[in-house]
User: Fold Carboxypeptidase from Steinernema glaseri.
Amino acid sequence: MSTRLIGGVTPIHNKSLQGAGPRKFGYIKGAEEVLAGQSLDRRLTRHCTMGVARFAVLVALVALFAIASQGEEIKSLPGVGFELNFKHYSGFFKVSDNHLLHYWFVESQNNPAKDPLLFWFNGGPGCSSLDGLLNEMGPYLANQDGKTLHENPNSWNKLASIVYIESPAGVGYSYSTDGNTTTNDDLTSLENYEAVKLFFKEFPAFRNHSTFIMGESYGGVYVPTLTARIVDGQKDFPINLKGMALGNGYVNEKLNIDTSIRFAYGHGIIDEKTWNTLESECCKGCIDSCDFTQVTGHCARMVEDIFQFLWAGGLNPYDLYRDCDPNPDVNSLRLQSMLMGIAPKHASQHTLRYPKKAHFKFPLMGASVPCLNDSDLVTYMNDVKVRQALNIPFNLPKWDICSEQITRDYQKQYTDMKPFIKKIVDAHVRVLLYYGDTDMACNFMMGQQFANGLGYRRLLNKTPWKFDRQIAGFKTLYDGVTFITIRGAGHMAPQWRAPQMYYAIQQFLLNHPI
Assistant:
């Protein structure tokens, strides 16, 4: 289901004196929209003059602006069964004439006046960053009942204050006032940059904090393109940018295709007969240097068949060793978004024959396997009291974890993040690439080859890193770049290996070895 608006929404409307996010005078079209849709002039002229009425309107607008400039604090969050020791906010950043991005900001539980500041982006493209907040590393996590939240002992806001931004417009509660949500990599990075700048204007006390940009999956495009913009804009809008981190980031389309085939063989999914056929008939007898994006004819069809099985053959693309949700009624928009967004469709003019905007059709299963049940989070986010607490305009449509329309219409412009990440590293901004090693969507081999291909001097060859006296993964250090795997974690490493990821992020923020 799409979160695109039909007909547009006025940011300040007749039921949202409390909500709708940070607001400026330019957002407000009249006093009628401030006071429950009734003309303030008509109300006041019963008791006073028109001049007094207009003065009262001005006072109301000034007061409203003063409140908005402090952000929209969440006074009481439904379903929280434990005491909160931090402030949190929810509102909107007006990043263009027609686009407003929803944010949810949680201050640090430790020392918000000094702790680092993180901006977090989930991917898709078309999926909500609130998945990160409420399923992965936030202070409160959704319960299966869809009504309550439980405390996360490994919340990253014990280390830093975190801003979760739903991007681009049309995702989650972010919206467009004219209904147009078509976007691309450049426009998304530009609007994300505007959101970052607006955050610092709304919360100026955080302006000088050490700042980190982080994300996951197709955030592997969102985050480097945004961080590169911040680097380029330092003269005009200085930000104390210290680092960038990607979790199972989609950083190179060609590598993702090539390594997915090798990952499948290495994990026993491809048999010897198929592998030998690929080598002898498709790779000129040398499969180690084979480019699977350039094969043609029956070789291309073999590659397509392998991908069809990886993505819809009954395995969990997010975690090879994690079972899919068996409930046939589950409709996972997250998986649909991944299938349309990250799954290769047009890697070259020869390979993977699916047209750019076509829906996948899978002969193996007849329908896509849900795998991940997001109904608890969807139910919680659409609760009327939750929407009110988050200052969501009443006439925005229902929230979904992913928007099929955004994914379908999204125009991917970049297939390789190398130029962006090199610009970032060369600006002396530290980079962490972390990959759960059982993920098939954005596998660790892609990240490993990508990190090595950046060309920076290697400081430490691949070696284990430990947590709680156990091997938690492997690390390779380069000059400016750290690459790590998280053993036994899939696509959402902070969710499935929470203590290990908490430790790794803590070390990265402190600029200490992992």
In short: The chain has two domains: 72-252+413-510, 254-353+365-376. DSSP finds 16 helices and 13 strands in the chain. The longest strand covers residues 458-467.
